[in-house]
Amino acid sequence: GSDFMKKFQQDNHGIWDLTKEGLQEIEKYETIYTNDTKPISSKEREWGSWDIAALWIGIMVSIPVYMLASGLIASGMNWWQSISVIVLGHTIVIIPATLLGHSGTKYGISYPLVSKLIFGPKGNIFPTMVRAFLGCFWFGIQCWIGGMAVDSMISAIIPAWIQINGHLFVCYGIFLLLNVYIGYTGSKAVKYMESYAAPVLIIMGLAVIIWAYRVSGGFGKLLTHSVAQGGKNNFWKLFFPSLTAMIAFDGTIALNISDFTRHAKTQKAQISGQFIGAPVMTVFIVFVGICGTVASAISFGSPIWNPAELVSKFKNPLIVILFSIFIILATLTTNVAANLVPPGIIFSNLFAKFLTYKKAIIIVGFLAIVAQPWKVLENPNNYIYEVNGALATFLGPMAGIYLASYWLEYKSNIELVDLYRIDGGKYYYDKGVNKIAIISLFLITLFLYFGKFSDSFYKIFYENSYVLGLLIGMFVYILLIKIFNKNNSIGG
């Protein structure tokens, strides 16, 4: 009960720390308690709301977010419709992100532990593996974009480079190896780079806006240009699938946000930081994307939605080299931190007997090539609707089950000693698997995904799969627990 809990962990202004008795208790069992997995104590917390906001700035100022607006415009929206949809999506996702981030701040625990709490020590393999494979996939896509920038840079210096067969693939390989090298050495270079890159990227964004302003002769002309006006497609037909794609875009980060919020000093810091950082930066970078795409149509005759490709069109080698370095930086900072390291940690945790962290990083690099990112990026529709649409059918229900379990089943009260155990305890469920959570996730994902192939009302579920999946996931999980688990802690 709760007295037992007070002995092993204590509340320091909303942050729960393990006591000396708690640490001694943990040693009695088989656990996953190590220097890497242990909770960050209230004394060690350093992040205020600005640090959490800065994290989102680093994540948002990236090439894929720049490409989102142009992708929506290419499918028929006008500039203000696409900005509204993107910002709405990135704001909605902050609601589950702050609710999921609560556990990180309250207990100082990382994402794999939050997931273990809900799925059980063995059941946890499936959801964390999916998160790891998503990382590998995005890692490949970002490496292709970075490779294009490397290609532009080399051809600005050596014009004959373009004549070489497969020159793009060579650059993809170079950029991928650079990422893997940084991840492999686990060097402080990543942190160092993150802190210096954010302001540099904002300056680069402003430069694009100024260039577009000059090329088009003012914002009035820029925003009434036919490219900014999009096609004549029905906005409402595009609205829901686009919104779902935008939410899914950050759905992966929302899931493992506790990896970051565990550093926050207070709940207020993590909540205000997230709500300031994500929406504000999204408006900025998306506007930069729209300006870049319209100005490219005016300057070069057709709209270019990929900045790496846009850079290669300039005749001035200095501009090409400078902006290529920026794109390489933007991609590197987001990619290593968000897409390479998390799967590396998950693989090396799950297969500790066979894989060190370093070997896991090399495997992520290999999987990124297997994913063939150049095929996904051939067409903006692929990138937005196919990939993110399919992801949302999984990420929505998963977030819903996490929220239902943490907030409604456990009422945000976790016993840390039991959380670390892998040989039994309160969160061991049935032989280490929370079957209700696994079955709910699997069935709801399938139900949402098959909506894709329907022409009837059922398609609505696929087109709104993140939001509906989250709500259905919460409802189904709680319902099943009330039916099958009479002894569980809900309502009592």
Written account of the structure:
- This protein is 73% helix and 2% strand.
- With 492 residues, it is an all-alpha fold.
- A two-stranded antiparallel ribbon has the order 1-2.
- A hairpin with a 2-residue loop joins β1 and β2 (15-18).
- It is globular, with a radius of gyration of 23 Å.
**Span of the ends, CA to CA:** 12 Å
Largest sheet: 2 strands, antiparallel
Average pLDDT over all residues: 84
Regions with pLDDT < 50 over 5+ consecutive residues?
488-492
Q: What is the helix tally? A: 24
Topology record:
Elements: H1 2-8, E1 9-12, E2 15-18, H2 20-26, H3 49-60, H4 63-74, H5 79-92, H6 94-107, H7 111-119, H8 125-157, H9 167-185, H10 189-216, H11 219-224, H12 226-229, H13 235-255, H14 258-261, H15 267-300, H16 307-312, H17 317-350, H18 357-370, H19 373-376, H20 380-409, H21 416-420, H22 435-450, H23 459-463, H24 465-484
Antiparallel strand pairs: 1-2
Helix pairs in contact: 3-15, 4-5, 4-15, 4-20, 5-13, 5-15, 6-13, 6-15, 6-20, 8-9, 8-17, 8-18, 9-17, 9-18, 10-15, 10-17, 13-20, 17-18, 20-22, 20-24, 22-24
Q: Can you describe this structure in just a few lines?
A:
The chain has 492 residues and is mainly alpha-helical.
Structural descriptors:
492 residues, mainly alpha, two-stranded antiparallel sheet, 24 helices, 2 strands, 73% helix
